Amino acid sequence: MQHFTSKALKAIKERYSKIRSKYIDMTLEIGAFAQKLRSERAKEFMQHGVSRRLWLLYRCVERIYDLFPPDRIEQLEQDDRLDVEICLHAFLINIYGIIENLALALAYENNLIDKAISNKIKINLFNKDFRNLLNPQLRSYLSKNTITQWYAEYAKNYRDALAHRIPPYVPPAALNAEERRQFEDFDKEISLLYQTREFEKISALQEKQLKLGRSNPLVIHSFSEKAIPFYLHPQLLSDFVTIEELLKKAMASFYRDPSSMDN
Fold this sequence. Notes:
- 68% of the residues lie in helices and 2% in strands.
- It has 2 domains: 6-173 and 219-260; 175-213.
- The longest helix has 32 residues, at 78-109.
- By secondary structure, the protein is mainly alpha-helical.
């Protein structure tokens, strides 16, 4: 049984096929835009911050799709699943990093660093006080519920979990009701065997546990925090498009004073 419907799977594959061209176009656009910036620090944050991170995002998506195609049903090998998680962690950190680098580029190019420091304003696109210092059009975009919710519930939430709490992970398997019952029965046996230190039997039961179920495309960090899980494959593509939109909106309204944009 597929994780996604045929229609959803087709849409995922079509969107994935466009990622490389999106990455190339954005890299060229950022490079050309950075050359026009007056602040060397702003230019550095765009060229060596945003642009490099965008490259990492693209490579992470590509590698995850190679290791774990969206139509794969069989469980991943343990090392492959861990490699998927490594790429996922890099992806999440660099999503957040692009947002931070972009904020710093805006701050340096608009001479907002001293003002932000003196007023104890955090240089962050989703900090209300900093946002109020930006171009009105960019400020309006960054105030929309869709982007603020994406940032708070996903980008920051999952980055903070990765950096400070329970790291996001891809579960080894998805289990149906019967498989879950078997898994729990094995768990009970294993608990008893630990008391008698019968490690060979424990290992054998754990091997049986690992064979239960099918691959699991969900991502979660902490159950106790009631984190909202997400489907790996469509979320990566959605994030890439969100970052693309954010960068284009920012570059179109980069200057605090719109009249200085062509200067």
